[in-house]
UniProtKB/TrEMBL annotation:
Residues 152-380 form the Tyr recombinase domain. The keyword DNA repair does not apply. Signal peptide: none annotated. It comes from Saccharopolyspora gregorii. The keyword Cell membrane does not apply. Residues 10-123 form the Core-binding (CB) domain. It comes from the Bacteria. InterPro entries: CB, DNA_brk_join_enz, Integrase-like_cat_sf, Integrase_catalytic, Integrase_recombinase_N, Integrase_SAM-like_N, Tyrosine_recombinase_XerCD. Keywords: DNA integration, DNA recombination, DNA-binding. It holds the Pfam family Phage_int_SAM_1. This is Integrase.
Amino acid sequence: MTEVATRQERTGTPGPERFAEFLRVYASLNTRLAYATDLGIPLDWVPGYTAPEPGRRRGRARRGEPTGLEWLHWCVREGFGSFAEVRVQHVERWLEELARAGYRDATRARMLSAVSAFYQKYLLREGLAEHNPAALVDRSAQHLNRSGSSPSQTAMWSFEACRALLLAAHLLADRHRNGPRDRAMVEVLIGTGVRAEELVGVNLDDYHRPAAGGPAALRVHGKGAKDRRVALAAPVADAVADYLRVRAAPQVPALRGQPGLRAPEPMFVTSTGRRVHVSHVQAVLRRLCATFAPAPDAAPPRSRRVREVLDGEQASLVAAHLGPLRETIHPHSARHSYATHAITRGAEPRQVQHDLGHAALSTTEGYLHDAEDLANSAAHELAPALHRGWLR
């Protein structure tokens, strides 16, 4: 039994069933896992969660192992008998401890929002607290304020880097057993800006291509159980079609208690027929970078077929753009890159907002990076006019 559960038995604070009630407010399992992770709720208490097989990585939903500074663990350590005892000064002290432990401001802001939601959407409603101390925190003093329209800190890939990732996945597609699948995943990720969780969550019946060689559409299951359709341009759809031709059909059992009905068949599957885990998306991106731009002390690839690709004339071009991404590449950068490059090429912001599944346009605007603002600055027009005729 976890320390959190032991404390609850001793003090009468909410137990697993209470936290499960709170998490059921959110229809998406990924959202439930995110809140559970930030609050320190054991994942086994999350409704709908199935523990991975022994030896398999938990993946991104876990965001690393517990540090003991998650909200519930911190409250247990501080000796609170109930959440009603917590005051704003306690929350601020918790945030300061997170900062000293090296948590980024964006991470602390997200964790504070999780605590606030826990109070607002459950504890206050159930009469387990009289006020929401997280809502009283001075976010500005804690350096947690960021305008919704200010640029995100997530790194954006240059247009050339996006091309290099697509080319790398193409060159290795027939050099690995799962090459066609990985290439299709990279094409959809970069070509649509979907979230990694949305990418691995699509099923076969979510894909529709009316005519061979033409564009396609993909229904993705976004945050808050909100589905949307994204367009797959013909090159992206071709990559998906190449993968589907070699995809092995998994053995999907019928739904328990419902004879004749079968569970949705995932589009992207492992060699054993299971749905690809979200952690695999980042692993694919890292492998592409490490293959074409390996670390100085990395051993050469064992596969002769891969070495042949690396000896080709296109490999050095790919390496030049993927080398800087090798240590920091993350799938969420694909969304930022999609937003910026699409608007740069004349797409309407409202359409990009729909593509990304953002409820507010200000969220989409926050994905645009300073480079675009600098390139379009009015200074490029004003300064030459001011100096025209006397400065060469």
